[in-house]
Amino acid sequence: MKIEIWSDVMCPFCYIGKNNFEQALEKLPFKNEVEVEWKSFQLDPTLDPLQPQNTIEYFKEKKGLPADQTSQMIGQVAQMGKGAGIDFNFEKALIINTFSAHKLLHLAKKHGKANEMEEALFIAHFIDGKNVGDLEELISLAEKSGIDREEARQALTSDQFDNEVNQDIQDAKNNGISGVPFFILNGKYAVSGAQPIEVFADALQQTYKETVSAFKDLSKEGGAACDINGC
């Protein structure tokens, strides 16, 4: 069963959604039959890739809210994060254009390490206060995940994965996705937002029952068929 997840590195609800989704999946008997594919999405592609901004100042400017209301909003998100086992450090988090981070994600996908890289990027951004638009920071994350430094440098300083990132963004538009996180379950159902663990569990079970186990039951009948060797 395939799960496609559109996400952006600087989206706190994407990190919360990831944790809740993974906790839900871990409890299910078919967890080893689930393939997760991370998809790129940019919440603000207009951001300067060379000029990181303070989180509070960015949201004050972006939403036009006073400082105290902005702090209150961020505090509510931080509290929600604690419920998902995340200690957000918004005071250190730097807002930056995430296109390069998504290129690194696609490089990691090539090595079968996309899930690990998604987690590493979230930690770098939300916990450690790293600039996830900085070339050397991204190369360091690649190296820590077992990817060769020079391969990472080449991928990040060229257009090697630009098409993949842009295609994910276009796929989101084609699917009517305007916010993240967004989960498409085996091409049949969609779950939007950082839902509670039980919502993810119910959705996964329903999708599995309708798209996977049903086919398994039918296959037991062993009816006549044709294959490449004949009938």
From TrEMBL:
Record keywords: Isomerase
InterPro entries reported in the protein's UniProt record: DSBA-like_thioredoxin_dom, Thioredoxin-like_sf
GO molecular function: isomerase activity; oxidoreductase activity
Domain DSBA-like thioredoxin: 3-205
Protein name according to UniProt: DsbA family oxidoreductase
UniProt organism field: Chryseobacterium carnipullorum
Pfam families: DSBA (PF01323)
Upper taxonomic lineage: Bacteria, Pseudomonadati, Bacteroidota, Flavobacteriia, Flavobacteriales
